[in-house]
Every structure is written in structure tokens, then in C-alpha cells.
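Entry 14. Structure prediction run on the chain below.
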Amino acid sequence: MNDARIAYTQNKTDQGDTMVGYKRILVAVDLGEHSRQVIGRAQAASAKAGATVKLLHVVEYVPVEPMGEALLPAVSVEEDLVAGARKRLTDLAEHCGLEAVEAEVLAGPIKSEICHQASQWGADLIVLGSRGRHGLGALVNLTEDAVLHGAPCDVLAVRLQDQA
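Output returned:
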């Protein structure tokens, strides 16, 4: 299992297969080029466990002037970003053969929304992508680290590989 790692496991089992026992898998994607890798890993886990999958994308829009006169256009921009992300997530789900799977796009802080949705939906596994970090990047608190420590359930961080 060189392209993924179980980053954190709260519920240890004596079973040989670590994917057995999951019933609800929340898949957090950024809609980038590696989203298919993340979804593929979630599909494999779901197939082994017989779990339900939910796709999630969070739009985190921070207006340039949060207290300025441009508040109304910022709200409109956020709505446009969410609508565009909904279309892209639907297209991605269809491409991956997940047309019947629940897919949701939310606006807000990415890290907290993923953890909140996992808790609210009753997920017992979150699957998300993990990028390698070098130099100063290793000091940055990235999404996968924050989710790892704030999640109400297990987290599978898929090591993202460049697609050729």
C-alpha cells in the first residue's frame, strides 16, 4: 500500500483487513487533478467494506476586503464559486461512476467543514489527499493535518502521485 497510508486510527480491530467495518465514507476532494486518485482509493475501501460513500468539496472564499464596501459582490462571487464547484463535482462523480452517490458542496473553512460534515453525517472514515512537503512546506498546517487531528473518525490520507 505505497500510495496511501492510514494516517490515524481511533478504532483498532483484530481483523486482518483494516477496511472492514466502515459503513460511511466521506470523501473530501479539492476538484484538482488528483481528485480521481482520492476517489479511487475511497471506492476500493467502500467495495471491501460495503460502505456508503459521500463526496464533499468545500469552497473557502476569502474576500479581499472583508469589511469593505465590496461585501455584496463578494457574496455573489462566493455563490458563483459554489455553483461552479457543484457542476465540477457532479461531472467528477459521473466520470468515476458515482452518479448515484450523494455529493455536496459547501462554503466555509475547509478544515472545520470536513470535520463537521463527518460528524453530522456519521462518517466512520474520511478519505482525502495528502501532498508531500519539503522545506518550509513542512511547517505549514495543511488541511490533511488539521482534519487528522480534528476528525471524529478515522482518516485515510491518500499519498498523491503525479499523473502521467
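The beta strands are 4-8, 24-28, 52-59, 102-107, 125-130, 154-159.
Filed with the rest of this week's runs.
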